[in-house]
């Protein structure tokens, strides 16, 4: 048997060439040990059921920063930025509870009218009969607006939040990355921390308000974070509140363009919008992987995993697992149990903002259908060079009046 491709290679995702490598791993060796890679040795977990086992056993498979964190690439020494997704209970639990109310159902109901109003304004302001970048004018703009609201961040400066998100996830080996070294990344993120610290001090001196900065400034679990944790936590909230949604907004447009029959199906039956949103999030899988570290010797799918081993859950593969999802390579908006995908993770680390992401995407497509907007893709997408975020950097489209 020939050796398996190192599926940690970011080039596979920029070139959109990952599918056959994962199909082979799922078929031949779904819990596969890669003895050598630029990230050191690691286990690839590629089937849905095995990924769930790892996700739900946080006692055996740790997310803790001090053991390695949540990405296949270890954070360089001196640039380690802990946050609650890089923690195990009880610290994880306390910090997550601090920010969870912002995306509770009652607050989503309060936010809905605002999201609708902004989505209407963005769609009605799009150019007609000339090319524009869907990622910039729609996906990024809508998510920047949402982030500014969640943080109560200065409205005119909201694109700074998007920039800091790009900085946080950038692969510095990419010639087109917004930062080209870890030192440059840290300098940018310290600038972010300085801006957030000004707002933090203002909110701490005021009675508690319902925004993320005020919530953290007044909570026992977060009010006294050291600098690196402060940077890491804001980085997590910005990336988490931005990348899943904006890349699903862009990936969804591409999926419907490639499958016009599914668009027609949705246009004729508004009841399909909820499963359609879940299906496009599955189909895009905006977070490619999450990593854990084994805290003890254990067994998974007949393989012995040793204490200290790096274990990588490939969501992008689990969402294409033929043994768990019927005809997974097909984009199908009326898929039964459409929400049973891995794009948001599972267990204690399931994406805290999953319902907000779904709401934003739901409103976007509802408003597009109302307006009978059907943008045509008029050029090749530019994809992110990353093995962590399945990002779309630009997508040229045109709306013909």
Describe the structure.
The structure is a single chain. This protein is an alpha+beta fold and 401 residues long. It has helices at residues 11-14, 19-28, 48-56, 91-99, 105-124, 134-151, 159-169, 182-204, 212-218, 227-240, 243-258, 260-268, 273-284, 315-318, 354-371, and strands at 31-34, 42-45, 61-62, 132-133, 289-294, 298-300, 303-305, 310-314, 376-377, 382-383, 392-394, 396-398. The strands form four sheets. A five-stranded mixed beta sheet has the order 1-2-8-5-3. Strand 10 and strand 11 (392-394) form a beta hairpin. The mean pLDDT is 95.
Q: Give the terminus-to-terminus CA distance.
A: 55 Å
Determine the CATH topology: Cytochrome p450
Number of strands: 12
Multimerization status: single chain
The sequence of SSEs as H and E is HHEEHEHHEHHHHHHHHEEEEHHEEEE
- Rg, Cα atoms, Å: 21 Å
**Biggest β-sheet: count, sense, barrel?**
5 strands, mixed
Q: What's the arrangement of strands in the largest beta sheet?
A: 1-2-8-5-3
* Count of the separate structural domains: 1
How much of the sequence is in beta strands? 5-15%
In DSSP terms, counting alpha (H) and pi (I) runs of 4 or more, how many helices? 15
Question: Which architecture per CATH?
Answer: Orthogonal Bundle
Mind telling me the CATH superfamily name? Cytochrome P450
- The residue fraction in helices comes out at 40-55%
Mean pLDDT: 95
Helix and strand content put the structural class at alpha+beta
Q: What is the CATH domain class?
A: Mainly Alpha
Uncertain stretches: none
Shape: globular
